[in-house]
Design brief:
The chain is α+β, with helices and mostly antiparallel strands. The chain contains 20 helices and 23 strands. The longest helix has about 35 residues, at about 10-45. This is Peptidoglycan D,D-transpeptidase FtsI family protein. Belongs to the transpeptidase family.
């Protein structure tokens, strides 16, 4: 019998609850087992790999920039060297958001605009206007995530800025300094920072040609950085994986003091004469070393590179005019066809094939010695002797003198000039070549011809690199170029003596270049004037000329050879027709700078013309 009002629990509900509890306990045990298993796997089997992954996530690899080698002159004076600077950067959007949010939470803190103004004012002050206040504000107010501003900021000043304002970063930059400015710039060239390579790269001149020697090799470092900020290095975490290898220094044969003087005097002379361009070379007569190689127009490698970046003294070829007569003179003396005092009856003109060639001054038939043919610069007399020499012997000798091929000096863009091969000659070609027309050469090649005569008939290819100096101080001398015997010592001495007649000033025996004479010194040299091609007619112009001079000082014991070229001088002054006065000025400086002894005796007056 069942009592009313008494509850009774169903047996089925109690059983269900027990089963659910057992299932829950079983699931919990399973989860714990799986978790423990995973933990064991992570700690026992994958710990090393995961640790490495974590390290990689916060390690940043970077370059250790190699120090670029210096370029020095023959006395060790530095013409180019490397320095370091910084480029500033910021994250404008993050900076704005961070400071505006902080200001909203605490109005006593500065707004982003106020903080940016403080930064701009401070940078303007510390850098003394190198970056203006407005330039900084423009960068910080730009709507970008990342921006650079400021070029070549001094490293110590950049440190002051980043220490005071951690939101401003400073990135390493290597810089190239040129303490001599424009002196030798067309030789040295220029280099600048290449961000994509994280190094300074030579762009023009020897900086480019010798880049592999100067550059060195960047090293590799790793450092821990804050999450998401590869530029924020955690102090004490930097490690060097591979150290940087510095570049080697390059020592030149150039005398930078002489280079300065030659550049200045060449530029002044070009302005005075109205020349479009002018170039000069000073060679050591015995070694072929280039002491100076200058152009009237140059640039500042430490400034903007907007013009005059080339080196016309080695890249631009021209027709030398009568300076080229030394080839015929040397060949004729070498083969015994004439002697210095051989008298030639020289008419006012000569026929060669279909051409009539005359001298620069009108005359009837006159008795000139062969020395006088050079001293008076007679085209007719030169062609008379050249016909005795013959076309093939002339061509072969011109090649020995180095024409039609580059000198191998190692400067970028060197021209080989032009010497037409005999198979391309027409009947009238040999009316031009012996008098320095119809062929072309650089001022460096022209100076090289006269270095041959000054050096007893042996041509030494010119060089501008003296040595490489390794990072450990080891000096590796550049290989000395092998000399080329062009003519005999006797021939060279004879021609050298004949060329003294060019600069002599004696009654009825005056040469074409007496302005080149230097009191107390014997001087040998040769003047030259060559017509330029008129592009409108393809013929020689009667108005535009190349004016040249090549000479040696002193003639009795040559120490230096000087080659000069003026391109189309137009001024109505006497200097516009000759470069002899410029040679005098440069030779005078050479004798004083290098304490060259006076010649033991004056040069004897040579007979140029019989009367």
């Amino acid at each position: 019998m069942v009592r009313r009002g008494t509850k009774r629990t169903a047996r089925t509900d109690v059983a269900g609850s027990g089963r659910r509890l057992r299932v829950a306990n079983a699931l919990m045990v399973l989860v714990l087992v799986l978790t423990a298993g995973k933990l064991i796997q992570l700690q026992a089997f994958e710990a090393g790999e995961l640790s490495a992954m974590a390290e990689q996530q916060r390690e940043t690899r970077g370059d250790i920039v190699a120090e670029r080698g210096s370029i020095v002159d023959r006395a060790g004076n530095v013409l180019a060297f490397s320095n370091e600077a910084r480029k500033l950067y910021a994250n404008p959007r993050d900076l704005t958001r961070t400071f505006d949010e902080a200001h909203r939470e605490d109005p006593t803190k500065p707004t982003a605009a106020e903080y940016k103004q403080e930064i701009a004012t401070y940078i303007d002050h510390v850098l003394d206007g190198q970056i203006s206040e407005q330039e900084v504000l423009d960068a910080l107010n730009s709507d970008v995530q990342f921006t650079y501003f400021g070029e070549q900021v001094d490293a110590s000043k950049a440190a002051l800025i980043t220490e005071k304002f951690p939101h401003i970063g400073a990135e390493y930059r290597a810089t190239r300094e040129y303490p001599a400015g424009k002196v030798g710039a067309n030789i040295i060239g220029a280099a600048n920072w290449r961000m994509d390579e994280n190094r300074v790269r030579g762009m023009i001149g020897l900086e480019s040609a010798m880049d592999d020697v100067l550059a060195g090799e960047n090293g590799v470092k790793v450092s821990d950085t804050a999450a998401g900020q590869s530029n924020l290095v955690i102090p004490g975490t930097e490690q060097v994986l591979d150290p940087a290898v510095p570049g080697s220094d390059v020592a030149l044969t150039i005398d930078s003091d002489l280079q300065y003087v030659v550049q200045q005097r060449l530029a002044d002379y070009a302005r005075k004469t109205g020349a479009a361009n002018a170039s000069a070379v000073v060679l050591d007569a015995k070694t072929g070393e280039v002491y100076s190689l200058a152009n009237d127009k140059t640039f500042d490698p430490g400034g903007s590179w907007d013009a005059n970046l080339g080196n016309p003294a080695v890249t631009h070829a021209y027709e030398p005019g009568s300076v080229g007569k030394v080839i015929t003179a040397a060949g004729a003396i070498e083969d015994g066809l004439v002697a210095p005092d051989t008298v030639l009856q020289v008419p006012g003109s000569i026929e060669v094939a279909d051409r009539t060639i005359g001298d620069a001054w009108p005359h009837g038939t006159i008795p000139l010695t062969f020395t006088g043919v050079l001293g008076k610069s007679s085209n007719v007399g030169t062609l008379m002797v050249a016909q005795k020499l013959g076309e093939q012997r002339f061509y072969d000798l011109a090649r020995k003198f180095g024409l039609g091929r580059s000198t191998g000096i190692g400067l970028p863009g060197e021209s080989s000039g032009y010497l037409p091969p005999p198979e391309e000659w027409s009947g009238s070609t040999f009316a031009n070549l012996p008098i320095g027309q119809g062929l072309s050469m650089t001022v460096l090649q022209m100076a090289g011809m006269y270095q041959t005569i000054a050096n007893d008939g042996v041509r030494i290819p010119p060089r501008v690199i003296s040595a490489e100096v390794r990072p450990d101080g080891t000096r590796v001398e550049a290989p000395e170029p092998e000399g080329v015997r062009v003519v005999s010592e006797r021939t060279a001495d004879t021609v050298k003596d004949m060329l003294r007649g060019v600069v002599q000033d004696a009654p009825q025996q005056t040469g074409t270049g007496p302005e080149a004479a230097l009191p107390g010194y014997q001087i040998s040299g040769k003047t030259g004037t060559a017509q330029q091609i008129d592009p409108e007619c393809g013929c020689y112009s009667n108005e535009k000329h190349w004016i040249t001079f090549a000479g040696m000082v002193p003639a009795d014991d040559p120490r230096f050879v000087v080659g000069l070229m003026l391109d189309a001088p137009t001024a109505q002054v006497p200097e516009a027709s000759t470069a002899a006065p410029l040679f005098h000025d440069i030779a005078d400086y050479l004798t004083r700078r290098y304490h060259i002894p006076l010649s033991p005796e004056p040069a004897p007056v040579q007979t140029l013309q019989l009367h």
